[in-house]
Amino acid sequence: MATDMTKPEEFDRELRHMFTQEVGERASDMEQALLAIEDTGEADEKLRLHEQLLRTAHSLKGAAGLLQVRGVEAICHWTEEILSIAVNEQFVLEKPKLDLLLSAADAIRDAARSLGAGETPPPAHGVVDALKAAIGARHRSDEPKLGPLSAGLKVPVRISDTDGSMRVSADRLDTLLYRSGELLSFNAIIRRHAEEASSLREQARKLRGVGPEFAAQAASIESGLRQLATSLRQDTRVMHSAATALDHEVRHARTQPFAEACKGLDRVVRDLAAASGKLAELEIKGGEIEIDRSILSGLQDSLRHLVRNAVAHGIQPPEERRAAGKPEKGRVLIAAAISGDRMQVRVEDDGRGFDMASLSKAADLAVGKNEAELLQRVFEPGVSTSGTVTKLAGRGIGLDIVKRNVEALRGTAEVSQIPSGGAAFTLTLPLTLATFRVLEVLAGEHVFTIDTASVRRVLRIHAQDFAMSGGRCVVSTQMGPIPFVELANWSGARPGRCDIRQAMPAIVVDAPGGPIAVLVDAVAGEQELLARPLGPRLAKIRRYSAGMVLPDGRIALLLNVAALAEAAAEARSPNGAHWPRPIPAKRRKVLVVDDSKYVRTLVKLILENAGYDVAMASNGKEALDQLGDHGADMVIADVDMPSMNGFELTEAIRRSERFTDTPVVLVTGRETLEDKVRGLRAGANAYLRKDQFDAQHFLETMRRVV
């Protein structure tokens, strides 16, 4: 493209091949997204596609910069500028600009084809100039339209087996792995059939003892079943051996050294450091570790973003490092390690680390927030500590891409400060995306699965274990207070517990920011299952990572631990209080009214475990509607709510002929005597302050007034 671009023969062949593959895929993604924007009529969907395009252009720009393909880098940079304006100003690109961006995607694809064929791509100054002009005239409707710059050349595919090896498509390897996984699943089915045969043989033995007229028949059945069970056991051993060998070979064929994912990153560090007046070097540890090809492929983009982030934000200029007593040359470390059936990739630098004040300002949070929680906000879109937008940083989308990519690989991403100076990003990933050892859990009538690599332990939570600590809804355990999420409520399933006063099973899982407890109705068991993609319709639902077919044919969704952790972190209350053991009560229906869904959920759990039936509403108006339709024996309401506050709700209940005698308890953070008098004058039976809340007194108050 541009005349300053390095000639193709000067590229490393493997790097060029990797680049042309990525460019081809991302150019196709851009084209599909642009066409989808043109086809859809929904503004929200258009804006979502704009954001998707912005991330794609940002990632592709980094790949082009890696190999110094300046033309592609320039097209992506100006494409990113156009999309960034559209996203930030919340307007939809019209057809002329969409045509222009389609032409840009065509030019990128043509360049990749030329590079793949060993040729120098033709110049594309026209596209770059048109993109620049479109930024200055973004409110006009007559943007220029450009067609493809060249027809491009097809990349020849050469397959050779002269060295005893041949190229196998990734799709075929995936198919082989799924087939081996199905063999393992079928092996479990045969094992179950063998157990059933043994059970039938036992029943036949009992039948023989009923009477002499059944003895011969029972003996014949028992003999046949004995032979069947023996044959099934032998077949099971043979199939298991064959399936295990096939599974091992296929997995080995899919693996590549971790160093493959790091190819070209040393050039990223060198070139970006030189462009910003810095000195830096890259160190890789664990490069010999063999990892699944699918994980390797998904890691490349994330590693590139993290390395760019380390150089742009972390490594200081030489003079600043000298003043801090550090070597002039900064260091970026990428280390891989295997831990059980997970792998961890750590990317760290010895730079300045995060400026917590700047991060608090960028994330719009108070400086006093918990440091670990505040650091996790760097993964949110739009959060950047860079004061200006440059080619290296400032848009706040690079780490958002990292988080999305890692979660797509069914992993988690965490960030921390290094005490000696610098920042570290830890990516925890499965060793394969095909099969998982999972824990099956029940929420209502639905079955879900949790990757056992994330499970720390299984507990039983009693009513007295629910508490609030530091303003967060938690359960008290031997490990200390742990944030929790109730799976049935979170997933929208109806709880399946028959006796809500019984203890609830809780799965403690390791998650970004610390352990959380997932409250479930029951734990069904543990086994290895084949994971299947959710498909394009469900691909954007972050709650679930994959689908799994159970041996009985049912579908179980694999839960995304990162999404569970976010739900648990949001479960907050304005005041802290600890709930002791509740007093059993008669089955009465209580309507809980609060504008915080997490406070409603916590109070619901407390009341249900005390023996009450609970309904919930988010404001006074909704509560009145529910009372009219379904009634209630008692109302517990917050005061400060939208639509209709607690005082107004109480007055409306007292004016109602049907519910004028329904007890109302106001539980609020308001502390003044005037507010308490106002609540009692409105007709409340009791007025409880949250800062003086005592669960024992609360439940005794309910029993007294209901």
Describe the protein's architecture and organization.
The chain is of the alpha/beta class and 706 residues long. It contains 20 helices and 23 strands. The relative contact order is 0.06. The protein has 5 domains: 129 residues, Four Helix Bundle (Hemerythrin (Met), subunit A); 87 residues; 168 residues, 2-Layer Sandwich (Heat Shock Protein 90); 135 residues, OB fold (Dihydrolipoamide Acetyltransferase, E2P); 117 residues, Response regulator (Rossmann fold). A hairpin with a 2-residue loop joins strand 12 and strand 13.
Report the CATH superfamily of the largest domain: Histidine kinase-like ATPase, C-terminal domain
Q: Give the N-to-C terminal Cα separation.
A: 79 Å
Count the helices. How many? 20
Q: What helical percentage do the residues reach?
A: 40-55%
Mean pLDDT: 76
- The helix-and-strand class reads alpha/beta
